[in-house]
Amino acid sequence: MSGAAVIELTSLSKRYGSTPAVDGLDWSGGRGVIGLLGPNGAGKSTLLRMLATVLAQDSGAIRVFGLDPAVADERLAIRRRLGYLPQEAGLYRNFTAYELVDYVAVLKEITNRPSRRDEVRRVLADVGLTDDMHRRIRTLSAGMQRRVALAAALLGHPDLLVLDEPSAGLDPDQRLRLRTVLSDVGQRATVVLSTHQTDEVAAFCQRVLVLDRGRLLFDGAPRDLAGRAADRVWVSDAPDAGALRSWVTGDGDIRNIGMPPPGASVVEPTLDDGYLLIATEDGART
Amino acid sequence: MTAVDEWHVSDHELERYVNHTIPTFARASVESHLLECDRCRGELTSVHPRPVRASAADEVWARIADRIDVAARPLRSSTTVLQVSTSSPLLILATLAVALGVITSVAIASAAAPRASLPLFVMLAPLAPVIGAVLAFQTGIDPAGQLAAATPLASGRLSFLRALSSCGLSLVAVAVSSVFVPVGLDDVAVWLLPGLALTALVVAISTWVDPSRVALGLVGGWVVAVSVWSWGPRSQSVRLDLGDFAAERRSVQLALIGVTICSAVVAFVRRNELPVWRSR
C-alpha cells in the first residue's frame, strides 16, 4: 500500500429503512489490493456501490481521487478512471463475449475502433476468454459469464477497480488467474474487492477490512488479522464450554477461539481464526 | 513465507499445471503452493504469458474489420450511437408495445364510438413517445444496467440516447398505425408536435427530478386539457378542428417547436446531471 489516499470516507452512513447498511465509516486507502471481509449483510456491497458512484450516501462524505461523486462533473471524472464489477452483473445473453465487452467499451468512451478492438481483446485475454470470445453469452458457463463481466470492469486500465465478489462462481484455476491479474493491477492501481474467502485475502490483498453491520471492526495487514488471534486458539478433543466459538476441523479435532484454559494446546492462528474472533467478540458486545 | 521458500514448483510441473495434464492430487498441491509463493506465481505468469496471441483467423478478421472501419469512418459516431441506444431489446419491445397499445385503444374506441376516435387519438398518440422515453430511464429495463451503471456514458448520455431511439421508434410505430384512424399525414402536426414537445420536456426536467414523476404530471395535464377541449362545456364552440390546427394555428405549432428545441438544449447542456442513475 503506498501513495496518496485514493479513497477517503468520512462518517459515511447509509440506511435501508431502519437498518444501517454502512454506519459512520471513517477510512482512507491508496494503491494496492484491499479486501473487504464480512458476513452477508455486513454492508460490503453497499460500500462498494457507493465507491462505484452508483449509490448515494445518506450522510457523511466520499472522496475518490479527491473528487466528490455527488457533483455531476466530478462523478463523471471518477467514472472515467473507474472499473466496477457488480455483485449481480446481468449480461445480454444473445451478445457474444466480445460484443458485450465491446459495448461496455463504448460506454467507457473508447470510441476509436482499432484501439477499442485491441483493448477488448486484451481484457478478454486477461480473464482467459480468448478462445471463447465469439461464443454467445447464453452458451457460456456461469464462471465464464462472471469473467466476461470482470473483463468489462478491467477495460481502460482503471485507476480504481471496485469488485463485488469477483471470485464467486470461479473454479480454482480461474481463481488463480484472477489473483494473478488483480495482483498485477494492484501494482499500479487501487483494487477494492469483497469476498467471503479468507484464503483469497491472504493470497494477494495488502490490506484487509472487516465489516459487520456497517461498522469497521478491523483495518490492517492480513497477517495482523491472524495475529489478533495469537494465543487465543487451541485444539481439544471436545468442545470447550469456555470458548467463544468451537468447531470441528477436517481432521476431527475441535478448534476453539477465546481465552484458552490453563494447559490448553494453543496453536498458530490463521486468518479465519482472527476474523472469527473479531466478529464473535463484536457480536458478544452488541 | 518461510516453509514455501525451501521448495518451489518446477517449470515442468508448472507447464503440466497450465496444460491441465497434472494429476488431481498434485494439482491441489501445486495450487496451494502457488497461493503462498510469489516466486512461483511469477514463474506461472511466464509459463502462461499474457496477452494470449490471437489466432490466425482472428488476425485476418481484425484486418478485414480495419478495412471496413476505414471505409465506414464517416458513419463511426452514428454506429456507436446506434449500438448504445438500441442495446436494450427489452426497451425496444416495451416501446413497441406502448405504441401498439395506443393505436389499439383508438381503434377499439373508433369502432364503438366513431366520433370519439379523433379526440382519443390526439389525446393518446403523443403519450407513446413520452412513455417510451420514460422507459429508457428505468435501470431495470436493461439486463446489463448494473454493469453499465458506473461508466461515463451512464451519467445521463446513455439514457438520453435510449430515450431518443425509443421516442423515434414509437413515433414511427404510431405514424404507421395511424392509417387505421381518421388522421391523414397532412394532420400529423396535431399529434406529432405535442408528442415531441412533451417528450423533450420530460427529458429536460428529468435532469432535476425523477422522469416518471415528470411524465405523470405532464401526461395528466395533457389528458385533462384534451378532454376539456373535446368534451368540455364549450366543446361545441371550440371543437378541436384538425384542419384549423394543422394549417392555421401556426403560432401554436411554433410554440410547440420552440418548447421542443429549448428542452433539447437544456437536456444537452445538463446531460451529465441525470439523478436517476444514482439510486438513494
Describe, in plain words, how this protein is organized in 3D.
The complex is a heterodimer of chains A (286) and B (280). Chain A contains 9 helices and 12 strands. Chain A has helices at 44-51, 72-79, 97-107, 113-126, 142-154, 172-188, 198-204, 222-227, 271-285; strands at 2-16, 19-37, 59-64, 82-85, 160-164, 190-195, 207-212, 215-220, 233-236, 245-248, 254-257, 265-266. In chain A, strands 1, 2, 3, 4, 5, 6, 7 and 8 form an 8-stranded mixed beta sheet that branches. In chain A, helix 3 packs across helix 4, helix 3 (97-107) packs parallel to helix 5 and helix 4 (113-126) crosses helix 5 (142-154). With 280 residues, chain B is mainly α. Chain B contains 14 helices and no strands. Residues 1-5 and 72-78 of chain B have low confidence and may be disordered. The interface between A and B is large, with 51 and 45 residues.
Counting copies of identical and different chains, the oligomeric state is heterodimer
The low-pLDDT segments of chain B are 1-5, 72-78
Strand percentage of chain B: under 5%
Query: Can you tell me the residue ranges of chain A where pLDDT is under 50 for at least 5 consecutive residues?
Result: none
Please estimate the helix content of chain B: 55-70%
Radius of gyration of chain A: 21 Å
> What fraction strand of chain A?
25-35%
Please work out how many helical segments of chain A DSSP would assign: 9
Shape of chain B: elongated
Q: How far do the termini of chain B sit from each other?
A: 45 Å
Residue share in helices of chain A?
25-40%
What structural class do you assign from the helix and strand content of chain B?
mainly alpha
Write the element-wise H/E pattern of chain B from the N-terminal end onward. HHHHHHHHHHHHHH
Mean pLDDT rating of chain B: 73
Shape field of chain A:
globular
Mean pLDDT of chain A: 89
Main beta sheet of chain A: 8 strands, mixed
Distance between the termini of chain A: 32 Å
**Rg of chain B from C-alpha positions?**
29 Å
Q: Hey, which two chains have the biggest interface?
A: A-B, 51 and 45 residues
**SS class of chain A:** alpha/beta
